[in-house]
Amino acid sequence: MKNPEIQVRRRPRQSRAKLTQEALQESFVRLLHERHAHEITIREITDVAGVGLGTFYEYFSKKEDLVALTIHQHVKTNAEQLKSYAQSLMELSTKLSFEGYLQQIIHFQLEQIQARQFLWAQTFLLERQISNIESYRKSYAMMVQMWRSILEPSIQDDEQLKHMALNMQRVCYGFVSQTLLVEPEFEEWKELEKDIVQSLGKLKFE
Predict the structure, then answer these.
(1) The HTH tetR-type domain covers which part of the protein (predicted)?
(2) Does the first or last residue of the chain, that is N or C, have fewer Cβ atoms within 10 Å of its Cβ?
(3) Can you tell me the distance from the alpha carbon of 39 to that of 62, in angstroms, rounded to the nearest whole number?
(4) Of 32, 25, 15, 35, which Cα lies nearest the Cα of 66?
């Protein structure tokens, strides 16, 4: 049974609270490298984070809430990195074609995912186990909005922009998530990149 939307008991408005939540997330990720998520206990997470058990319950009602927040933050960080990279390309590359622009962004995205391949494979798996439909939709919408901001300088028509952003997310998310769900230790990244670019080449950019 999937859990409701992320339930965070205390919002990290102060820097100390934010750091505590980040420490708990990092502890969970560290333990995830040792065994499956369902085997990790809250006590182990707090021990690694160096906080008391009561501190955990100040922020989360159960372990699944921490897992859901970890997934959300991981996806959000990736989206922010891609937007920053796309902005730098626009500022530095005056002669770059639209297709070349997208190819470089896709290459960068795959590099980032490959660098943390284990965590991404776990993210896609846990996303299906933990997230309810509303949480999943919010995460998906965040990524579609990311693609919209990346495409916006090159596509002026709003309906076309909306359609293209959705298709970019469908293609990239579909290829990567299905690949890592089926084969977490996947190695043929260059071939995957070619397949994604080839698929996107069939979409209408104009």
Answers:
(1) 18-78
(2) N
(3) 14
(4) 25
